[in-house]
Amino acid sequence: MLYFCSVLDHQNWRYATKKYDNSKKVSTEDLAFLKEAVRLSASSYGLQLYKVLIIESDEVKAKLVAASYGQTQVADASHIFVFASQTNVGNTEIDAYLKNASETRKLPIEALAGYGDFMKGTINPMPEDAKSIWTAKQTYIAMANLLSAAAELNIDATPMEGFNAAQFNEILGLDKLNLNATVIVPVGYRHAEDDTQHYIKVRKSNEDLFITI
């Protein structure tokens, strides 16, 4: 019960921070914790068809502000996590996963052939637009892990869809890597002047949100 109380306490503490204290930086140790939480995220088939860029350069963050419609969190946060989904998915990515699984679990690659054929038979026929939607959805699972992990460390985070993906792709060179920015998360520490931190959290009641069948 103590564990669950701790989880709920962290979720009640967190909010989408609107103003960051740019004098405070996330430590190397805490950043490693956040990265590991993202790395361990669930993903469809375990493929993790995305990359996560971590922007700490003030110069780069400044360039991204205009591509974020002037939202200052992008400039003032300690780091920016940019989740970018892969735009081309096929046998190469599946075979790379199978090789990793074989080496990690010390299994002969032949033992995974059936699973590989299943994935290829399911994923490869998908229309490209459906693939793009699917891979983009995977980044949101990883983002959710980041938000929870950050709250556990009392690190503030702001999930943001309000940015120009094409401009992000250009600034960060994502197009050349067959990646597309899908969601970003500034992380850092709330500014004392951010009035939003004092707002009561607004959520639906259990009766309005849940349906038990």
TrEMBL record:
It comes from the Bacteria. InterPro entries: NfsB-like, Nitroreductase, Nitroreductase-like. Its cofactor is FMN. Keywords: Flavoprotein, FMN, NADP, Oxidoreductase. GO terms for molecular function: oxidoreductase activity. Pfam families: Nitroreductase. Residues 13-189 form the Nitroreductase domain. Belongs to the nitroreductase family. PANTHER family: NAD(P)H NITROREDUCTASE YDGI-RELATED (PTHR43673), NITROREDUCTASE (PTHR43673:SF2). This is NAD(P)H-dependent oxidoreductase.
